[in-house]
Amino acid sequence: MDFLTTLLLLVHLIPVSAPKNGASSKSRKRIMPDPVMEPGVPGPIHEALLYCNIPNVAERSMEGHAPHHFKLISVQVLIRHGDRYPLYTIPKTKRPEIDCTLVANRKPYHPKLEAFISHMSKGSGTSFESPLNSLPLYPNHPLCEMGELTQTGVVQHLQNGQLLRDIYVKKHKLLPTDWSADQLYLETTGKSRTLQSGLALLYGFLPDFDWKKIYFRHQPSALFCSGSCYCPLRNQYLKKEQHRQYLLRLKNSQLEKTYGDMARIVDIPTTQLRAANPIDSLLCHFCHNISFPCTKNGCIDMGHFKVIKMHQIEDEKERREMKLYLGYSLLGAHPILNQTVNRMQRAAEGRKDEIFALYSAHDVTLSPVLSALGLSEARFPRFAARLIFELWQDREKPSEHSVRILYNGVDVTFHTSFCQDHHRHSPKPMCPLENLVHFVKRDMFVALDGSSTNYYDACHMEVV
Protein backbone atom coordinates (compact mmCIF):
# COMPACT_ATOMS: atom_id res chain seq x y z
CA MET A 1 0.00 0.00 0.00
CA ASP A 2 1.40 3.44 -0.90
CA PHE A 3 2.05 6.23 1.59
CA LEU A 4 -0.99 8.30 0.61
CA THR A 5 -3.42 5.45 1.13
CA THR A 6 -1.89 4.53 4.49
CA LEU A 7 -2.00 8.16 5.57
CA LEU A 8 -5.66 8.50 4.68
CA LEU A 9 -6.52 5.36 6.59
CA LEU A 10 -4.54 6.24 9.69
CA VAL A 11 -5.38 9.90 10.21
CA HIS A 12 -9.04 9.77 9.13
CA LEU A 13 -8.97 12.59 6.60
CA ILE A 14 -12.21 11.38 5.05
CA PRO A 15 -14.81 14.04 5.89
CA VAL A 16 -17.96 13.25 7.81
CA SER A 17 -21.00 15.48 7.44
CA ALA A 18 -22.07 17.32 10.56
CA PRO A 19 -24.42 15.39 12.88
CA LYS A 20 -27.99 16.56 13.07
CA ASN A 21 -29.54 18.17 16.18
CA GLY A 22 -26.19 18.52 17.90
CA ALA A 23 -25.70 14.76 18.25
CA SER A 24 -22.23 13.63 19.14
CA SER A 25 -20.14 12.63 16.17
CA LYS A 26 -18.72 9.80 18.31
CA SER A 27 -21.94 7.84 17.89
CA ARG A 28 -21.56 7.90 14.12
CA LYS A 29 -20.67 4.54 12.57
CA ARG A 30 -17.50 4.61 10.46
CA ILE A 31 -16.43 2.35 7.65
CA MET A 32 -12.74 3.16 7.59
CA PRO A 33 -11.09 -0.02 6.29
CA ASP A 34 -8.40 -1.80 8.24
CA PRO A 35 -5.04 -1.19 6.50
CA VAL A 36 -3.93 -4.70 7.40
CA MET A 37 -6.75 -6.20 5.32
CA GLU A 38 -5.67 -4.57 2.06
CA PRO A 39 -2.93 -6.39 0.11
CA GLY A 40 0.26 -4.63 -0.95
CA VAL A 41 -0.79 -4.57 -4.60
CA PRO A 42 -3.57 -2.14 -5.59
CA GLY A 43 -6.92 -3.66 -4.67
CA PRO A 44 -10.53 -2.49 -4.42
CA ILE A 45 -10.07 -0.34 -1.30
CA HIS A 46 -6.91 1.28 -2.64
CA GLU A 47 -8.64 2.03 -5.95
CA ALA A 48 -11.74 3.39 -4.20
CA LEU A 49 -9.64 5.78 -2.10
CA LEU A 50 -7.89 7.06 -5.21
CA TYR A 51 -11.31 7.52 -6.84
CA CYS A 52 -12.58 9.55 -3.86
CA ASN A 53 -9.61 11.93 -4.24
CA ILE A 54 -9.79 13.16 -0.64
CA PRO A 55 -8.70 16.81 -0.55
CA ASN A 56 -6.21 18.42 1.85
CA VAL A 57 -3.39 16.03 1.00
CA ALA A 58 -0.49 17.82 -0.69
CA GLU A 59 -0.21 16.82 -4.34
CA ARG A 60 2.94 16.81 -6.41
CA SER A 61 2.40 17.97 -9.96
CA MET A 62 4.46 18.21 -13.14
CA GLU A 63 2.41 20.87 -14.92
CA GLY A 64 4.49 23.70 -16.34
CA HIS A 65 7.81 21.82 -16.37
CA ALA A 66 9.97 22.65 -19.38
CA PRO A 67 13.50 23.73 -20.28
CA HIS A 68 14.09 27.45 -19.68
CA HIS A 69 14.17 28.30 -23.40
CA PHE A 70 10.57 27.12 -23.90
CA LYS A 71 7.67 29.55 -23.58
CA LEU A 72 4.17 28.44 -22.56
CA ILE A 73 1.62 29.87 -24.99
CA SER A 74 -1.59 27.85 -24.48
CA VAL A 75 -3.23 25.60 -21.88
CA GLN A 76 -6.40 23.54 -22.26
CA VAL A 77 -7.93 21.81 -19.26
CA LEU A 78 -10.50 19.01 -19.29
CA ILE A 79 -11.90 18.16 -15.84
CA ARG A 80 -14.33 15.77 -14.30
CA HIS A 81 -16.68 17.42 -11.80
CA GLY A 82 -15.82 17.06 -8.14
CA ASP A 83 -17.30 14.80 -5.48
CA ARG A 84 -21.07 14.56 -5.81
CA TYR A 85 -24.08 13.05 -4.14
CA PRO A 86 -25.18 9.74 -5.75
CA LEU A 87 -27.24 9.69 -8.92
CA TYR A 88 -29.01 6.53 -7.73
CA THR A 89 -30.50 5.37 -4.44
CA ILE A 90 -30.58 1.84 -3.10
CA PRO A 91 -34.30 1.05 -2.73
CA LYS A 92 -35.73 0.72 0.79
CA THR A 93 -32.66 2.25 2.44
CA LYS A 94 -32.13 5.64 4.01
CA ARG A 95 -30.37 8.19 1.86
CA PRO A 96 -26.91 9.16 3.14
CA GLU A 97 -27.20 12.39 5.13
CA ILE A 98 -24.74 14.79 3.55
CA ASP A 99 -25.06 18.56 3.87
CA CYS A 100 -24.54 20.33 0.55
CA THR A 101 -24.41 23.82 1.96
CA LEU A 102 -20.93 25.35 2.04
CA VAL A 103 -19.54 26.06 5.52
CA ALA A 104 -16.13 27.71 5.59
CA ASN A 105 -14.96 26.21 8.91
CA ARG A 106 -16.11 22.65 8.20
CA LYS A 107 -13.91 19.92 6.78
CA PRO A 108 -12.83 19.62 4.07
CA TYR A 109 -11.49 23.16 4.41
CA HIS A 110 -9.88 25.50 1.90
CA PRO A 111 -8.52 29.00 2.63
CA LYS A 112 -10.46 30.43 -0.32
CA LEU A 113 -13.77 28.72 0.47
CA GLU A 114 -15.35 31.63 2.35
CA ALA A 115 -14.28 34.11 -0.34
CA PHE A 116 -15.57 31.72 -3.02
CA ILE A 117 -19.01 31.60 -1.37
CA SER A 118 -19.09 35.41 -1.18
CA HIS A 119 -18.00 35.82 -4.79
CA MET A 120 -20.53 33.32 -6.10
CA SER A 121 -23.33 35.18 -4.31
CA LYS A 122 -22.34 38.32 -6.26
CA GLY A 123 -22.73 36.53 -9.59
CA SER A 124 -26.45 35.81 -9.32
CA GLY A 125 -27.24 38.06 -12.28
CA THR A 126 -24.56 36.50 -14.46
CA SER A 127 -25.51 35.72 -18.03
CA PHE A 128 -24.33 32.34 -19.32
CA GLU A 129 -25.49 30.48 -22.39
CA SER A 130 -28.95 29.01 -21.83
CA PRO A 131 -29.88 26.83 -19.95
CA LEU A 132 -26.83 27.41 -17.72
CA ASN A 133 -28.21 30.77 -16.57
CA SER A 134 -30.93 28.94 -14.62
CA LEU A 135 -28.47 26.84 -12.56
CA PRO A 136 -27.23 27.72 -9.05
CA LEU A 137 -23.61 28.86 -8.94
CA TYR A 138 -22.76 26.81 -5.86
CA PRO A 139 -24.33 23.90 -3.93
CA ASN A 140 -26.77 25.03 -1.25
CA HIS A 141 -29.07 22.26 0.06
CA PRO A 142 -28.95 21.07 3.71
CA LEU A 143 -29.62 17.56 2.40
CA CYS A 144 -27.91 17.08 -0.93
CA GLU A 145 -30.05 16.60 -3.99
CA MET A 146 -29.30 13.72 -6.37
CA GLY A 147 -26.05 14.36 -8.25
CA GLU A 148 -25.37 17.63 -6.41
CA LEU A 149 -21.79 18.79 -5.92
CA THR A 150 -20.68 18.54 -2.28
CA GLN A 151 -18.37 20.78 -0.28
CA THR A 152 -15.69 18.17 -0.91
CA GLY A 153 -16.22 18.64 -4.66
CA VAL A 154 -15.90 22.42 -4.39
CA VAL A 155 -12.69 22.15 -2.35
CA GLN A 156 -11.21 19.64 -4.82
CA HIS A 157 -11.54 22.15 -7.64
CA LEU A 158 -10.50 25.17 -5.58
CA GLN A 159 -7.30 23.19 -5.00
CA ASN A 160 -7.00 22.35 -8.71
CA GLY A 161 -7.45 26.01 -9.61
CA GLN A 162 -4.96 27.28 -7.07
CA LEU A 163 -2.36 24.73 -8.18
CA LEU A 164 -2.79 25.77 -11.82
CA ARG A 165 -2.67 29.46 -10.84
CA ASP A 166 0.65 29.01 -9.05
CA ILE A 167 2.12 27.35 -12.15
CA TYR A 168 0.50 28.99 -15.15
CA VAL A 169 -0.27 32.53 -13.92
CA LYS A 170 2.35 33.25 -11.27
CA LYS A 171 5.26 31.30 -12.75
CA HIS A 172 4.67 31.31 -16.50
CA LYS A 173 2.57 34.50 -16.84
CA LEU A 174 0.20 32.76 -19.25
CA LEU A 175 -2.43 35.43 -18.61
CA PRO A 176 -1.59 39.09 -17.99
CA THR A 177 -2.99 40.85 -14.92
CA ASP A 178 -5.39 42.73 -17.21
CA TRP A 179 -6.55 39.57 -19.03
CA SER A 180 -9.57 39.93 -21.28
CA ALA A 181 -12.69 37.83 -21.76
CA ASP A 182 -11.59 36.59 -25.19
CA GLN A 183 -8.47 34.98 -23.67
CA LEU A 184 -10.66 32.42 -21.87
CA TYR A 185 -12.79 29.67 -23.37
CA LEU A 186 -15.21 28.08 -20.89
CA GLU A 187 -17.61 25.23 -21.66
CA THR A 188 -19.69 22.90 -19.50
CA THR A 189 -22.54 20.44 -19.71
CA GLY A 190 -25.91 21.50 -18.39
CA LYS A 191 -25.53 19.91 -14.94
CA SER A 192 -25.11 22.06 -11.84
CA ARG A 193 -22.19 19.89 -10.69
CA THR A 194 -20.16 20.61 -13.83
CA LEU A 195 -20.92 24.35 -13.88
CA GLN A 196 -20.13 24.66 -10.17
CA SER A 197 -16.93 22.62 -10.54
CA GLY A 198 -15.82 24.86 -13.39
CA LEU A 199 -16.53 27.97 -11.32
CA ALA A 200 -14.62 26.57 -8.33
CA LEU A 201 -11.56 25.81 -10.45
CA LEU A 202 -11.83 29.18 -12.16
CA TYR A 203 -12.01 30.97 -8.81
CA GLY A 204 -8.89 29.16 -7.58
CA PHE A 205 -7.20 30.04 -10.88
CA LEU A 206 -8.35 33.68 -11.07
CA PRO A 207 -9.49 34.74 -7.57
CA ASP A 208 -12.12 37.49 -7.43
CA PHE A 209 -12.47 37.45 -11.21
CA ASP A 210 -14.60 40.07 -12.91
CA TRP A 211 -17.99 38.48 -13.60
CA LYS A 212 -18.34 40.60 -16.77
CA LYS A 213 -15.40 38.67 -18.29
CA ILE A 214 -16.79 35.21 -17.58
CA TYR A 215 -19.02 33.41 -20.08
CA PHE A 216 -19.71 29.68 -19.93
CA ARG A 217 -20.95 27.99 -23.09
CA HIS A 218 -23.38 25.10 -22.82
CA GLN A 219 -22.49 21.69 -24.25
CA PRO A 220 -25.54 19.41 -24.64
CA SER A 221 -23.47 16.24 -25.11
CA ALA A 222 -21.26 14.60 -22.49
CA LEU A 223 -18.88 13.78 -25.37
CA PHE A 224 -18.53 17.50 -26.18
CA CYS A 225 -19.16 16.65 -29.81
CA SER A 226 -21.02 19.92 -30.58
CA GLY A 227 -22.37 19.70 -34.15
CA SER A 228 -20.63 16.39 -34.88
CA CYS A 229 -22.54 14.06 -32.58
CA TYR A 230 -24.23 11.83 -35.14
CA CYS A 231 -21.94 8.85 -35.56
CA PRO A 232 -23.62 5.46 -36.20
CA LEU A 233 -20.41 3.42 -35.96
CA ARG A 234 -19.57 4.91 -32.57
CA ASN A 235 -22.97 3.80 -31.29
CA GLN A 236 -22.43 0.29 -32.70
CA TYR A 237 -19.11 0.02 -30.87
CA LEU A 238 -20.83 1.15 -27.70
CA LYS A 239 -23.52 -1.52 -28.00
CA LYS A 240 -20.90 -4.21 -28.50
CA GLU A 241 -18.94 -2.89 -25.53
CA GLN A 242 -22.05 -2.98 -23.34
CA HIS A 243 -22.69 -6.58 -24.43
CA ARG A 244 -19.12 -7.45 -23.44
CA GLN A 245 -19.76 -5.95 -20.00
CA TYR A 246 -22.94 -8.02 -19.67
CA LEU A 247 -21.17 -11.28 -20.55
CA LEU A 248 -18.36 -10.57 -18.08
CA ARG A 249 -20.89 -10.00 -15.31
CA LEU A 250 -22.65 -13.28 -16.09
CA LYS A 251 -19.34 -15.14 -15.68
CA ASN A 252 -18.74 -13.67 -12.22
CA SER A 253 -20.56 -16.03 -9.83
CA GLN A 254 -19.23 -14.19 -6.76
CA LEU A 255 -20.67 -10.94 -8.06
CA GLU A 256 -24.07 -12.55 -8.67
CA LYS A 257 -24.03 -14.05 -5.18
CA THR A 258 -23.17 -10.64 -3.73
CA TYR A 259 -25.99 -8.92 -5.60
CA GLY A 260 -28.37 -11.65 -4.41
CA ASP A 261 -27.27 -11.20 -0.81
CA MET A 262 -27.68 -7.42 -0.99
CA ALA A 263 -31.11 -7.80 -2.62
CA ARG A 264 -32.17 -10.07 0.24
CA ILE A 265 -31.04 -7.46 2.77
CA VAL A 266 -33.11 -4.69 1.19
CA ASP A 267 -35.94 -7.08 0.27
CA ILE A 268 -36.17 -6.42 -3.47
CA PRO A 269 -35.54 -8.57 -6.57
CA THR A 270 -31.89 -8.87 -7.59
CA THR A 271 -32.60 -7.33 -11.00
CA GLN A 272 -34.12 -4.25 -9.32
CA LEU A 273 -31.09 -3.86 -7.06
CA ARG A 274 -28.67 -4.12 -9.98
CA ALA A 275 -30.70 -1.56 -11.94
CA ALA A 276 -30.30 0.83 -8.98
CA ASN A 277 -26.53 0.79 -9.59
CA PRO A 278 -25.66 0.29 -5.90
CA ILE A 279 -21.93 0.97 -6.34
CA ASP A 280 -22.72 4.64 -7.02
CA SER A 281 -24.42 5.01 -3.65
CA LEU A 282 -21.89 2.81 -1.83
CA LEU A 283 -19.00 4.88 -3.13
CA CYS A 284 -20.65 7.95 -1.63
CA HIS A 285 -20.87 6.21 1.76
CA PHE A 286 -17.25 5.12 1.41
CA CYS A 287 -15.85 8.50 0.32
CA HIS A 288 -17.69 10.30 3.14
CA ASN A 289 -16.95 7.63 5.76
CA ILE A 290 -20.62 6.90 6.44
CA SER A 291 -21.73 3.41 7.42
CA PHE A 292 -23.30 1.35 4.65
CA PRO A 293 -27.12 0.92 4.70
CA CYS A 294 -28.81 -1.51 7.10
CA THR A 295 -32.32 -2.97 7.27
CA LYS A 296 -34.04 -5.42 9.61
CA ASN A 297 -32.57 -8.17 7.42
CA GLY A 298 -28.96 -7.13 7.97
CA CYS A 299 -26.37 -4.68 6.66
CA ILE A 300 -24.62 -4.13 3.37
CA ASP A 301 -20.96 -4.34 4.34
CA MET A 302 -17.39 -3.85 3.16
CA GLY A 303 -17.33 -7.40 1.79
CA HIS A 304 -20.15 -6.57 -0.64
CA PHE A 305 -18.44 -3.32 -1.60
CA LYS A 306 -15.11 -5.02 -2.29
CA VAL A 307 -16.66 -7.63 -4.59
CA ILE A 308 -18.47 -5.03 -6.72
CA LYS A 309 -15.45 -2.73 -6.83
CA MET A 310 -13.15 -5.63 -7.75
CA HIS A 311 -15.46 -6.53 -10.62
CA GLN A 312 -15.15 -2.94 -11.88
CA ILE A 313 -11.35 -3.27 -11.85
CA GLU A 314 -11.55 -6.57 -13.77
CA ASP A 315 -13.99 -5.02 -16.23
CA GLU A 316 -11.59 -2.15 -16.95
CA LYS A 317 -8.77 -4.66 -17.56
CA GLU A 318 -10.82 -6.71 -20.03
CA ARG A 319 -12.08 -3.53 -21.68
CA ARG A 320 -8.51 -2.54 -22.53
CA GLU A 321 -7.76 -5.99 -23.94
CA MET A 322 -10.91 -6.38 -26.08
CA LYS A 323 -10.47 -3.05 -27.98
CA LEU A 324 -14.19 -2.48 -28.53
CA TYR A 325 -14.08 0.50 -26.20
CA LEU A 326 -11.09 1.83 -28.14
CA GLY A 327 -13.20 1.93 -31.31
CA TYR A 328 -15.92 3.80 -29.41
CA SER A 329 -13.33 6.15 -27.91
CA LEU A 330 -11.58 7.07 -31.15
CA LEU A 331 -14.89 8.22 -32.62
CA GLY A 332 -16.33 9.57 -29.37
CA ALA A 333 -13.28 11.68 -28.50
CA HIS A 334 -12.47 12.96 -31.98
CA PRO A 335 -14.65 16.11 -31.90
CA ILE A 336 -13.20 17.47 -28.64
CA LEU A 337 -9.64 16.51 -29.61
CA ASN A 338 -10.17 18.21 -32.97
CA GLN A 339 -11.26 21.41 -31.17
CA THR A 340 -8.20 21.13 -28.94
CA VAL A 341 -5.80 20.77 -31.87
CA ASN A 342 -7.44 23.60 -33.83
CA ARG A 343 -7.04 25.92 -30.85
CA MET A 344 -3.38 24.90 -30.49
CA GLN A 345 -2.74 25.59 -34.17
CA ARG A 346 -4.27 29.07 -33.86
CA ALA A 347 -2.08 29.79 -30.82
CA ALA A 348 1.00 28.56 -32.69
CA GLU A 349 0.15 31.02 -35.48
CA GLY A 350 0.26 33.85 -32.96
CA ARG A 351 -3.41 34.23 -32.04
CA LYS A 352 -3.86 35.52 -28.47
CA ASP A 353 -7.50 34.57 -27.94
CA GLU A 354 -8.57 31.46 -26.01
CA ILE A 355 -5.10 30.83 -24.60
CA PHE A 356 -6.72 29.21 -21.55
CA ALA A 357 -9.60 26.79 -22.20
CA LEU A 358 -11.60 24.91 -19.59
CA TYR A 359 -14.03 22.08 -20.31
CA SER A 360 -15.99 21.00 -17.23
CA ALA A 361 -17.22 17.50 -17.89
CA HIS A 362 -17.88 13.95 -16.66
CA ASP A 363 -16.14 10.59 -16.32
CA VAL A 364 -17.81 9.55 -19.59
CA THR A 365 -16.07 12.52 -21.24
CA LEU A 366 -12.56 11.95 -19.91
CA SER A 367 -12.53 8.16 -20.19
CA PRO A 368 -12.86 7.96 -24.01
CA VAL A 369 -10.37 10.82 -24.46
CA LEU A 370 -7.79 8.95 -22.36
CA SER A 371 -8.44 5.76 -24.31
CA ALA A 372 -8.27 7.51 -27.69
CA LEU A 373 -4.92 9.07 -26.80
CA GLY A 374 -3.56 5.59 -26.12
CA LEU A 375 -3.34 6.05 -22.36
CA SER A 376 -4.65 2.55 -21.72
CA GLU A 377 -3.06 2.27 -18.27
CA ALA A 378 -4.64 5.49 -17.00
CA ARG A 379 -6.95 4.98 -14.05
CA PHE A 380 -10.67 5.58 -14.45
CA PRO A 381 -11.30 9.31 -13.92
CA ARG A 382 -11.52 10.08 -10.22
CA PHE A 383 -13.59 12.91 -8.80
CA ALA A 384 -12.03 16.23 -9.92
CA ALA A 385 -9.68 14.48 -12.37
CA ARG A 386 -7.83 16.86 -14.70
CA LEU A 387 -6.36 16.25 -18.15
CA ILE A 388 -4.21 19.11 -19.43
CA PHE A 389 -2.81 19.97 -22.85
CA GLU A 390 0.11 22.43 -22.79
CA LEU A 391 1.48 24.13 -25.91
CA TRP A 392 5.06 25.40 -25.82
CA GLN A 393 7.16 27.50 -28.20
CA ASP A 394 10.90 27.02 -28.52
CA ARG A 395 12.42 30.51 -28.08
CA GLU A 396 15.57 29.36 -29.88
CA LYS A 397 13.48 28.14 -32.85
CA PRO A 398 10.24 30.19 -32.67
CA SER A 399 8.60 28.28 -35.52
CA GLU A 400 8.78 25.01 -33.54
CA HIS A 401 5.97 24.14 -31.12
CA SER A 402 5.65 21.21 -28.75
CA VAL A 403 2.93 19.70 -26.60
CA ARG A 404 2.80 18.14 -23.17
CA ILE A 405 -0.13 16.10 -21.87
CA LEU A 406 -0.64 15.65 -18.13
CA TYR A 407 -3.16 13.55 -16.25
CA ASN A 408 -3.70 14.42 -12.58
CA GLY A 409 -0.34 16.14 -12.50
CA VAL A 410 1.61 13.29 -14.13
CA ASP A 411 3.32 13.85 -17.48
CA VAL A 412 1.90 11.13 -19.75
CA THR A 413 3.02 12.66 -23.07
CA PHE A 414 5.34 9.82 -24.02
CA HIS A 415 2.76 7.19 -23.09
CA THR A 416 0.40 8.43 -25.80
CA SER A 417 0.14 6.43 -29.00
CA PHE A 418 1.22 9.41 -31.12
CA CYS A 419 4.41 10.17 -29.19
CA GLN A 420 5.81 6.83 -28.02
CA ASP A 421 8.00 6.40 -31.09
CA HIS A 422 9.18 10.01 -30.97
CA HIS A 423 10.37 9.45 -27.40
CA ARG A 424 12.38 6.42 -28.45
CA HIS A 425 14.15 8.18 -31.33
CA SER A 426 14.50 11.80 -30.21
CA PRO A 427 16.29 13.44 -27.28
CA LYS A 428 13.80 16.33 -27.21
CA PRO A 429 11.90 16.70 -23.91
CA MET A 430 8.48 17.27 -25.50
CA CYS A 431 6.35 16.03 -28.36
CA PRO A 432 6.17 18.02 -31.62
CA LEU A 433 2.78 19.65 -32.15
CA GLU A 434 2.59 18.10 -35.62
CA ASN A 435 2.54 14.62 -34.05
CA LEU A 436 -0.71 15.44 -32.26
CA VAL A 437 -2.13 17.20 -35.33
CA HIS A 438 -1.43 14.22 -37.59
CA PHE A 439 -2.90 11.85 -35.02
CA VAL A 440 -6.18 13.76 -34.70
CA LYS A 441 -6.55 14.66 -38.37
CA ARG A 442 -5.53 11.27 -39.83
CA ASP A 443 -4.17 8.52 -37.59
CA MET A 444 -7.25 8.20 -35.38
CA PHE A 445 -9.16 6.98 -38.44
CA VAL A 446 -6.32 4.74 -39.60
CA ALA A 447 -6.44 3.07 -36.19
CA LEU A 448 -10.05 2.04 -36.87
CA ASP A 449 -9.61 0.22 -40.18
CA GLY A 450 -7.11 2.12 -42.29
CA SER A 451 -9.54 3.04 -45.08
CA SER A 452 -11.17 6.20 -43.71
CA THR A 453 -9.47 9.57 -43.81
CA ASN A 454 -12.06 11.77 -42.11
CA TYR A 455 -14.55 11.70 -39.25
CA TYR A 456 -17.71 11.52 -41.38
CA ASP A 457 -16.53 8.52 -43.42
CA ALA A 458 -15.29 6.73 -40.30
CA CYS A 459 -18.62 7.25 -38.53
CA HIS A 460 -20.56 5.74 -41.42
CA MET A 461 -18.51 2.57 -41.91
CA GLU A 462 -19.94 -0.80 -40.98
CA VAL A 463 -18.59 -2.21 -37.76
CA VAL A 464 -16.57 -5.42 -38.09
Automatic annotation (TrEMBL):
GO MF, any single term: acid phosphatase activity
GO-annotated biological processes: chondroitin sulfate proteoglycan biosynthetic process; glycosaminoglycan biosynthetic process
Pfam families found in the cross-reference section: His_Phos_2 (PF00328)
Localization annotation: Golgi apparatus membrane
Catalytic reaction annotation: 3-O-[beta-D-GlcA-(1->3)-beta-D-Gal-(1->3)-beta-D-Gal-(1->4)-beta-D-2-O-P-Xyl]-L-seryl-[protein] + H2O = 3-O-(beta-D-GlcA-(1->3)-beta-D-Gal-(1->3)-beta-D-Gal-(1->4)-beta-D-Xyl)-L-seryl-[protein] + phosphate
Annotated keywords: Glycoprotein, Golgi apparatus, Hydrolase, Membrane, Signal, Signal-anchor, Transmembrane, Transmembrane helix
E.C. designation(s): 3.1.3.2
UniProt xrefs under InterPro entries: Acid_Pase_AS (IPR033379), His_Pase_clade-2 (IPR000560), His_PPase_superfam (IPR029033), Histidine_acid_phosphatase (IPR050645)
Function statement: Responsible for the 2-O-dephosphorylation of xylose in the glycosaminoglycan-protein linkage region of proteoglycans thereby regulating the amount of mature glycosaminoglycan (GAG) chains. Sulfated glycosaminoglycans (GAGs), including heparan sulfate and chondroitin sulfate, are synthesized on the so-called common GAG-protein linkage region (GlcUAbeta1-3Galbeta1-3Galbeta1-4Xylbeta1-O-Ser) of core proteins, which is formed by the stepwise addition of monosaccharide residues by the respective specific glycosyltransferases.
Record family assignment: Belongs to the histidine acid phosphatase family.
UniProt name for this protein: 2-phosphoxylose phosphatase 1
Species this protein is from: Cavia porcellus (Guinea pig)
Gene expressing this chain: PXYLP1
